[in-house]
Amino acid sequence: MVSKHLARNRERNSLIADTYAENWEKYGQTIIFADRWYQCEALVELLRQQGVRTDVLFGRQDVNAGSAEARVATGGAGYRPNRTRRS
Question: Which superkingdom, per the lineage (predicted)?
Answer without folding.
Answer: Bacteria
